[in-house]
Amino acid sequence: MASPLDAAQFRELCGRFATGVVVVTASPASGAPAGMTANSFASVSLEPPLVSVNVDRGSEFHAVIERAASFAINVLSQDQEWISRRFAASASNRFDGVGYRRSERGSIVLAGVVAVIECETLERIPVGDHTIVIGRVVGGDTHDLAPLLYYRGGYRTLG
Length: 159
Hints:
159 residues; alpha+beta; Pnp Oxidase, Chain A; three-stranded antiparallel beta sheet; 15% helix
């Protein structure tokens, strides 16, 4: 049997896959906006339209997404690295100075994003130290902007 893979090697392997950067937003029962940075976002199905995002069970946002009936995936643009860093940090003031609005569906939409994907929560699957959250896409919007990318432990842009 092969020896177990250590966490550092696993990060190195996965870090060779360039990903987009998103901020997942939702509201707890209090109605205050909540969010977290993620690069573990993926489309799952075209029919029905489904997406997934992985949320660390130790994160502050996990308690929110565990009870949220809906959430939004905000795809960050290349000039929003500061937003990615803000929502990745442990802080109660993540939305201070960040422009956002509520969509007609009640989703929290960040200003200046490449796209927003609005979802109804369909399923939560605990796996390892994360929960895979599956959402049924119910709407969204796109803008013609360059995306923020993440590769080998750092932010990148196109061009």
